[in-house]
Design goal:
Layout lengths: L2 H45 L16 H14 L5 E6 L2 E2 L9 E9 L4 E9 L5 H42 L6 E4 L4 E4 L7 E2 L2 H16 L13 H16 L14 H15 L7 H4 L9 H4 L13 E4 L2
Parallel strand pairs: 5-8
Antiparallel strand pairs: 1-2, 1-4, 3-4, 5-6, 6-7
Helix pairs in contact: 1-3, 4-5, 4-6
């Protein structure tokens, strides 16, 4: 896990933790609001006989100023909470702010001769100073956890690094085929003395085949079809390099003629230098055609498993 993924993981932890906090806080406040409203209703119900409320049936207007004063005194007792009483019956006060974040709830109290409405206002703020404190705490925890995880991962890498170096030293270097244009020979990296000479045509064609297959790993090379122009250009390039090195002054060979013979000479040279490493045939040998008819027509002599770092060329 890289550094970026570690901090993404713990940032997700911060977001989820804060989301859970807000949901639990919202649920807690709603439960507390319900308890406060129930207590306020109980207090108002006990005081109703002393309140001079208006009565439509009796055509009594009531004492609105006394009721407003009562509501204000009641709200002083509710001050620690989000709930406020804004109206009892037809009497409402204006001192309680009615913002867009407030929620109004209408409740009813039943007396022997009338039904009295009580309107509550709940200040439903989604953002408070305690949210800032919680964000700072959670963000600090997330950063510390991310740093702690990164430190553990770094310590683990440092602990494994010497073991990895020892293991790399213990592992033998992979055997590779070497081609030396200076003396026109094939060899391998394991045996520096072993060198098999190869004629100009198969040597140039094999070098061109390797380079072409590295650049075009999905191309099918069929002996029943013309050799690709790019492959021929590479073969000619290596032949001109042999001329520069002073190995020949002859006219360049026709690489399209006697293709099977050219491939056979390449395989014969590889047989000698890789006699102790038969498992490398799949990488370096131009595959032979097996069978007749349609099976041969589907055959490709391309090197499908070779990579750029599998070959060492000297004098290129």
């Amino acid at each position: 896990m890289n550094k970026k993924m570690i901090y993404i993981l713990f940032f997700s932890f911060f977001v989820i933790s804060f989301g859970l906090f807000k949901v639990s806080d919202y649920t807690r406040l709603n439960h507390l609001d319900a308890l406060v409203i129930a207590q306020a209703e109980k207090r108002i119900a006990l005081d109703l006989p002393r309140l001079d409320l208006s009565n439509t049936f009796l055509k009594h207007s009531g004492n609105n100023e006394a009721i407003k004063h009562y509501i204000k005194r009641l709200n002083l007792q509710l001050a620690p909470h989000r709930v406020r009483v804004i109206a009892i019956g037809d009497t409402a006060i204006d001192s309680v702010s009615n913002t867009t974040n407030s929620i109004q709830r209408l409740h009813y109290l039943q007396t022997s001769d009338q039904r009295v409405s009580v309107t509550f206002s709940i200040n439903n703020l989604w953002w408070a100073w305690r949210d800032v404190v919680v964000i700072l705490i959670l963000l600090t925890c997330a950063l510390l956890l991310g740093y702690w995880a990164e430190l553990i991962q770094y310590t683990h890498r440092q602990r494994l690094s010497p073991k990895k170096q020892e293991l790399q030293k213990a592992l033998p270097e992979f055997v590779k085929v070497t081609i030396d244009l200076n003396n026109k020979t094939l060899g391998n990296t394991e045996n520096q003395i072993l060198a098999v000479s190869l004629a100009n045509k198969p040597l140039c064609f094999y070098l061109a085949l390797i380079e072409f297959c590295i650049d075009n790993p999905d191309v099918t090379l069929n002996q029943n079809k013309d050799v690709p122009v790019e492959l021929l250009e590479l073969a000619n390039k290596y032949f001109y390099r042999l001329i520069e090195l002073g190995h020949t002054i002859r006219k360049r060979p026709n690489f399209t003629n006697s293709l099977e013979k050219t491939l056979s000479e390449i395989r014969a040279a590889l047989d000698e230098i890789l006699s102790e490493y038969p498992e490398l045939k799949d990488k370096y040998y131009p595959p032979k055609a097996h069978g007749e008819g349609s099976r041969s027509r589907l055959h490709s002599y391309g090197l499908v498993n070779i990579k750029a770092d599998d070959i060492v060329v000297n004098g290129k």
